[in-house]
From TrEMBL:
It comes from Actinocorallia libanotica. InterPro entries: BtrH_N (IPR026935), DUF4872 (IPR032369). Residues 14-142 form the Butirosin biosynthesis protein H N-terminal domain. This is BtrH N-terminal domain-containing protein. It comes from the Bacteria. Pfam families: BtrH_N, DUF4872. Residues 155-324 form the DUF4872 domain.
């Protein structure tokens, strides 16, 4: 059995920030999960409903691996990313750094991992790998998935080779922290304003505050849109609250990041943004509960109420991001 020594295998609330925390702590840089999420400008919104989809999907963050790229850029980290179509080369790209004493991040489809009891294809899942033997790989995943876990090498190979939405070509990556280690304080404002600018000026109506407004109109139709409302609506609510979002569709994580920022930066704009995201986080949880109730009861009034809250959320988050976008003034 080959394992990296000194790995802190804490599972977090979200997969990508969990993996980033494992890699960076091993490099001597210990940042909270909300700080990793915020410095990676991770917050976003997407209403996604394609012709091939069984049901709409609400995304509350930037696309997979963009957070990692953003964080590396913000902190001046060396990010070494490898992708390949070859399963043999893909394994070499993982085994070599582990043999050299460094944990590795992997992007894969969680459907094929042995420890996942909920079998749903998601090609944007990210884990940290810190060891292997002839039968299994040793990974760190979110707290709800067990933290330090293992999966068979055959399943891992299938997970890494999977093709489809949000998948990558056997993507693996390592992070190196420069000397001296960067302080997050000077990186907080640029990360916030970059996130705010993208949220306030989305290129299409499905993104950012415009996407939340659109969701508020379309959620009212979800009982008719669903093939099986009793299954599809509670599942959508579960994804918003518990499926690695940190709760409230990532708004809890961003609220907590802004709170940490307030301890380092004295700004009325930051305080305003934090107060508004605290309100937004509560309303997102309320929205998820209404969507779940609508599916269980077939009561369309719950979706009308959810739509009204989403309209308020579009305004609240727009006002929050407008305040945060003024941090550099």
């Amino acid at each position: 059995m080959t394992t990296v020594e000194g790995v802190d295998a804490r599972g977090g609330r979200h997969c990508e920030t969990t993996a980033l925390g494992v890699l960076l702590r091993h490099e001597g840089l210990d940042l909270s999960e909300p700080m990793l999420f915020g410095l990676g400008s991770g917050l976003s919104f997407l209403y996604w409903d394609g012709k091939s989809m069984d049901f709409p999907f609400l995304a509350g963050r930037v696309k997979p691996f963009e957070l990692t790229r953003n964080l590396a850029s913000a902190l001046g980290l060396e990010l070494l990313t490898r992708e390949t179509a070859s399963p043999r080369r893909a394994w070499e790209n993982v085994a070599a750094p582990i043999d050299a004493g460094h944990p590795v991040g992997l992007q894969l489809d969680s459907y094929h991992l042995d420890y996942f009891t909920s079998k749903v294809n998601f090609g944007g899942h990210i884990v940290a790998m810190y060891g292997y033997d002839e039968h299994a790989a040793y990974l760190v995943d979110t707290e709800q998935q067990g933290g330090a876990v293992s999966t068979g090498l055959t399943g891992l190979a299938r997970a890494r080779a999977a093709r489809g939405p949000m998948t990558a070509r056997h993507r693996s990556f390592t992070l190196t922290v420069p000397e001296p280690a960067p302080s997050p304080r000077t990186r907080i404002v640029p990360a916030i304003t970059a996130c705010a600018a993208a949220f306030l000026h989305p290129p299409i109506a499905n993104l950012g505050h415009r996407g939340i407004e659109k969701a508020g109109k379309l959620v009212r139709t979800w009982l008719q849109r669903a093939d099986d409302p009793q299954r599809d609506l509670p599942q959508a609510a579960l994804l918003m609250e518990q499926a690695g979002t940190g709760g409230a569709l990532f708004r809890n994580l961003y609220r907590d990041f802004l709170a940490e920022g307030m301890e380092l930066i004295d700004s009325d704009h930051l305080r305003t943004g934090h107060a508004l995201y605290a309100e937004a986080a509560h309303l997102w949880t309320e929205t998820a509960a209404l969507i779940k109730k609508a599916g269980e009861s077939a009561d369309a009034r719950c979706l009308v109420q959810a739509g009204a809250i989403l309209a308020d959320l579009s305004r609240i988050e727009r006002e929050a991001m407008q305040a945060l976008n003024r941090l550099e003034e």
